[in-house]
Amino acid sequence: THIRIAIKPTYRDPRFGARASRSNNTGLSMAFGKYLEINGRLANYPAPGEPDPVTGFDPLVLRDLSANVKLKLPRFSEYLPDLAVGITDAGGAANFFDAKYAVATHVWGPFKVTAGYGQGSNFQLAGAFGGVEFRPFKQYNVTTLVEDDGRNVHAGVRYITPELNWLNDARFAFTVSRTIGAKDEFGKPH
């Protein structure tokens, strides 16, 4: 069994990003074998203003630590899509990013298509969501992508490193994306 590790920045949530001076969202993902993925996320949205003179901490809009679990179901035919179910922001005192979802992913030549449905108090993965990833050159691990997270549309480019033998076959994924027509928590353009 291989453990794959990915450390990745996550996108700036418009519900909190509009009120924050900056954002720092970081995730750590670990896949155990082919079927189980667990990841953690630290979302930090400091408010504009000076740090507290006593503690030195920035004033906060939000700081949240969340755990996510995804279980991939066995596939019985190469012609069927991969199916998975998951939960985001499981447990804890505050659940700003919680959702339960089911998702299907299938690869057709250079295209990887994803479609799913989720529900929860989270503005992402609320209702239908999906995306298309295009890998024009098989020898390179570079793809272009368009994703709809159920609230906003994102377009970008992703690079995934080859397996790194010196790191137990871990791979790193780097994604640069831009949100198109972002909306705040009230559905107004952001």
Structural class: mainly beta
Helix tally?
1
Helix content: under 10%
Shape: globular
Q: Unreliable runs, pLDDT <50, ≥5 residues?
A: none
Strand order of the largest sheet: 1-2-3-4-5-6-7-8-9-10-11
Q: How many whole angstroms does the radius of gyration measure?
A: 18 Å
Average pLDDT level: 82
Assembly type = single chain
Characterize the biggest β-sheet: 11 strands, antiparallel
Give a written overview of the molecule:
The structure is a single chain. The chain is mainly beta and 190 residues long. It is built from 1 helix and 11 strands. It has one helix spanning 14-17, and strands spanning 3-9, 24-32, 36-46, 60-72, 82-88, 99-108, 111-119, 127-134, 142-148, 153-160, 173-180.
Quick structural summary:
This protein is mostly beta strands and 190 residues long. Helix content is 2%, strand content 51%.
Tag the structure with descriptive keywords.
single chain; 190 residues; mainly beta; 11-stranded antiparallel beta sheet; 1 helix; globular
Question: How does the SSE layout of this entry go?
Answer:
Blueprint: E1 3-9, H1 14-17, E2 24-32, E3 36-46, E4 60-72, E5 82-88, E6 99-108, E7 111-119, E8 127-134, E9 142-148, E10 153-160, E11 173-180
Antiparallel strand pairs: 1-2, 2-3, 3-4, 4-5, 5-6, 6-7, 7-8, 8-9, 9-10, 10-11
